[in-house]
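User: Fold both of these, please.

Assistant: Here is the first one.
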Amino acid sequence: MESYYPNKKKHNTLSTLIGRYLSLIALAGLVLGQSVMADGVTANQPLAIDIHAPVCTSRRYPVIPKIPLYEDRLIRIQADQARINKQDVSTFSGSVLINQGRVQLEADRASYVYRTDLLDAFGNIRFITPDAMFSGDTLHANLKKQQARLDEVVYFTREGGNGRANSIQMLDPQHMNLHKASYTTCPPEKKPDWSLSASKIKLNRETEVGTATNVLLKAKNVPFFYFPYLRFPLTDRRMTGLLFPSIGSSNLHGTEIRIPVYWNIAPNYDATFTPWYMSDRGTMLQTEFRYLHRRNHGQLDINYLNKDKKQNDETRDSLRWRHNGNPFKGWTTAVDYSRVSDIDYLKTFGNTLNTTSLTALNQLANAQYRTGKWSFSATVQDYQTISLVNTLPYKRLPQLQFGSHFPIRDNRLNYELKGEVVSFDHELDNKVIGNRLDVTPAISWPLRTPGAFLEPKLAWRFTQYQLENTSATDTSPYRQVPTFSIDSGLIFDRNTDSGNNGFLHTLEPRLYYVYTPYRDQDALPIFDTQQTKFSVNEPIKADFFDGADRVEDANRLTAMLYTRLFSRDSGAEVFSAGLGQIYYFADRRVTLPGRAPDTSYYSNVIAELNTQPGRIWGMRSDLQWNPKESEIDIANVSMKFATQSAVSADLSYHYQRNVIETAGAGLRWQISTHWSVDGKQLFDVRNERNLESRLGVRYDSCCWAIGLTARDRYINALVDNDRTVYLDFVFKGLSSISTGKRF
């Protein structure tokens, strides 16, 4: 079966990681074929490969020589002296070069027996491919049987790996044995910083599987990991095996040990099982199952702890299923289902601010069909509450939506239709439930020129309910309301210069008027409607109620003014600024339950300022100014600075009056070739507490790296901060081993 598995997340088992590099020693194509030709062919355009560039820069790494590349299978032999004898032994001496296809063999002397197809080479042997170079003392090959042996091998790969082998023996084109082989990405020396070795390696290209015995991972020639037997793939395909374990300690769980096991079920299925031992709680089994087909893919995560010793031996578990599909032309499907055993599960086992602060888990399934001009969707949505505060939304069982997608035609009449039918339910018995039909047809006539636009639009919205569990006498209330709007704007532009830079400068005033008459909607329930605010994210809206249970009575004018700068050379926007406000001509009488009508004559003033003058730095900012109280209600600022390689930094500030105020900073500094620093700080200014801080220091050599990271993360007011120290050690070209300790 052909493998369609995505490359964005590969599972590298221990055997896969080790086998990938041990298999590089294989002399694929060493058997040179059947046809022989001796001549002085001039090489084609050569291919130069710098063997040390990807990992280390050291004179101790040789450079793979340039070799000619041929598309045919003929053997070409060059030598200072040659004696050709088709009946007996042909000998070649003095700078012998043997080329075939994309490989080259160099030796001091070589002999070839035409009748038996035996080839022997001696002295300063170098076997070169585009990916690697092998040196040895003697080479014996039987071209007829396609067998070969190279003794006392030293090799270098294009990725920067190198090593030795006592001998490499090709039994046939599909089978190869290596004896006492080693591998490292460190500079070639007697005691590299780390190395991998095996007493014997067998490569079977027929099954695409290799085996190795007595595998040792060494640091400065001191063994610290031993694998008596390994199986590994000879290609990029995945293989069942162990992943690197992790060991640590935590005040939440005690001593922790995780040993992941990867199961390659099929080319488009795999699973990872991770027993997570916690001395204070027990052993949790974490399971990740992934699948991928031509028309769908997804992932199922299941975690199960039979008895939690710190929580009265309760069973703790969680499940999440994510799925996306395209079963037929025009159809898409999606599933996002999450469930946990108890409300404290994410506080205990979650590891990010986002997961530990959740109050409800989404449980959704959706199917959508879209043609060129229409779309239809069906959604089933439920929630699991994981908070003591009752914030559980209504269930949608189901929600059917439809809408038109006609192309917009300028200076002509345009049509639009959208609507939905929803059945709402709730787990609380005292909640009103029922069905809702909502339909909105609309017509518009957009008038556009290169420097101006005017778009009048007329919409009519009809909403009908069928209610249950209500004390109202009318169980089928409805609402119908028209909305008229005019969107208009001008675009002025001119060329301007600043130094040697040329820009296109625009000035864009925009006016948006909307009128919706008042309709008494107090008898209508609130299923899924919230009131949004005027903001820079979406300033032009006909209705600031999000949901069909309320429609705003509007008689207002939105005034916006934008200015932008575009580089004439690249066309990129290097600067933009915007300013806007809403002017009301009548009070807003439609409200959500418990809220008073809005009688203000104007809204907050919104403003935004964004600049990206080059690749080095940029800034984005917005704010909302309350003119009644002469105070800022909302402010957001973020700045980023980055050189090409040495330093990158970011600053952020978020403020919402009487709600939240946070300041953050991040830094990545490549101090030198070997040393780098990575840090992050997020501080709650309003409550004077640290939300998250992280500081990491890393040292990189050419073949290994070590990093130390400390993190302090706020979970919530009921749980102590998560304080963690990580120590990472990386073998470049192999993998990494990490230990973590929480305080």
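And the second sequence with its predicted structure:
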Amino acid sequence: MSELELASELMRWAALACVLYQVRRWPHGWTVGLLVLTSLLLIEQVGVRAFALQSELPPSARLVYRLGSFAISALLLGGAFACVRALGPRRPSVPDREQAPPRARDEAERRPPSKPTPLAAEEPNQTLRARARQQEALANLGRRILASASLGEALDDAVHTVARTLRVSGSSIFEFAFHRRSLVLRSGAGRMSDYLGVALSAGRDSYLGQALSQEQRVIVSDLDEAPLLRPQLLPYAQARSAIAVVIPGRDRPLGVLAAHAAEASRFTDEDAHFIQGVANLISATMEQERTRAELDRGRERALQAQKLQALGRLSGGIAHDLNNVLHAIVGNTELALRRSNEDSVAANNLRQVLTAAQRARALIQQVLTFSLQGRPERTRVEIESIVDEVVVLMRGCLPKDVRIYKTVLLPSATVVADSTQLYQVLVNLCTNAGHAMPESGGEIEVSIDGAYLSADEARDLGLEEGRYILLSVRDTGHGIPSEIRDRIFDPFFSASGVAGSAREGTGMGLAVVHGIVDAHHGHVRVESDPGEGARFDVFLPQSEESAPESTASEAQLSSSRPASDDVRVLFVDDEPALVLMTEQGLGGHGFEVTGMQSSTRALEVFRQDPFAFDVVVMDQNMPELCGDALAKELIQIRHDIPIVLCTGYANEVTPEELQAIGVREYLNKPLAIDHLANVVRRAARSAAH
């Protein structure tokens, strides 16, 4: 058998085996078999022709014919197998695996898993995973915040959670300082942690200010394209894109939570929802801390009020007794001075006693003011005029190395107040500032401004919502240490020596300031740090209504004095020394005086002959019948009797109540004899008319 015949025979058997295999397994096997048989017949005809021709060809051409016949046979077989592959069964798909033969199903189950889906199909899955991660981080943050020991720890945990979850370069929390209209960095992650305490403008020239003013989220895709929205700190934090959301509060935003990334277009809506959730947690934490601080301040104010009230009652009682003693000293000194030669040593000594008594009277008046026993005479007062007087006065009292000046930010500021007491407030604050100055000197600034206190702000200060005049005294002295800051308004507590100043004070100045301001329904706020001076802010209610004008001066009322002869005076006081001194003093002015130490005995005498007296002068605090009760009884007996009431301590009756009873005059002890005589003349004249 020739080589061509052997090759043809092998091809025939191979094609036959292929046909049998296809017929057994594939549904198109018969078609494939027919194609293979047709190819074999063609191959056989080509082989026969080549074999017949090879004997006629020269030897060199026989090899060519053989190779050509093999090539044609190979092409035909290749085409047949291509048809087999195209028409054969495909691999069963995933839904059809249950219908595939058991062997094929087992092979499919053992086959390794398919490769990941393309990027377009992966994006929804990545979004879901990111959202799940954010929700898990938010839940964990909420649990940690509830267990945190302080607000600072909670804020630090929040900013680090935002930076870690969003995988950004930094995050920060800015607290809104309402009075200064600024944003103060309270906590930061990344490079922002290097700028804690820095204040930024809350204006709309940054994305932080826009978020605060609009109270909604702000996303900046590229800060390089919007440089006007870039806050001052972000260039140092290497930020390219940023997001800011508002930390909501009960009545106003509490601040802003921000995050920034080094690449542009970094933040999405899902990120904004996550950051807002963190901001809501921060809001709840800050409100809780705010409520706790309000409760603490309320308890402190209650304790302070109780302490000051107790001290006020004690000091008021002491002041009453001191006034009685001082009244006797002043009156008897005046009587002795009248009987002395004006140029004698005794007269000079007596005048020194009167001077000391006047100083003691001023000190007792301060004690009464602190104890809220003083009765302010309220009028419409222009603050700037009082400030001008105080500044001029203090320039002469302060050392030369201490400079004092005023700053007026609210012209024509007026309040309804007692001008004398307001003057005293400023003098005491400036004197206190002078005591706090170092030996090298310093500055004192007295400023006038206005302020509107919201409900929460007013509640923090113990005031009512509304507009207030802000009267401030700022100094550059030693400052007030935190350990004594709560005691500076206590009577006779002086912070001068503690602060390091060699200039000592009496310790009554700030106590008097507190009493006066509290009586005017205001508040005194103190801001001070050791070595950085102190600032006292006095809030006084601003009123547009005019107050009643003050009464005319004593000189005007007593310009025309009636004669003292034939004016009969009934004087009632439980202090024997005062009764004796008043009888002598008023008697020296020509009055006929009847003195009594018992209020009930005085009532009996007056009831026996109501027209035996022209004027009744009495003390308020007496053991049997107090002054106002005795006045009621006397007026019921004789309704036109002029009554002058004197006291050194009035804690139950007001001038308005006395006027309603019918009391003509109301005087504070100690009294000079000349002054008392003028008042008695005025009362007698009013009764005559």
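Residues 90-100, 496-503, 546-562 have pLDDT under 50 and may be disordered.
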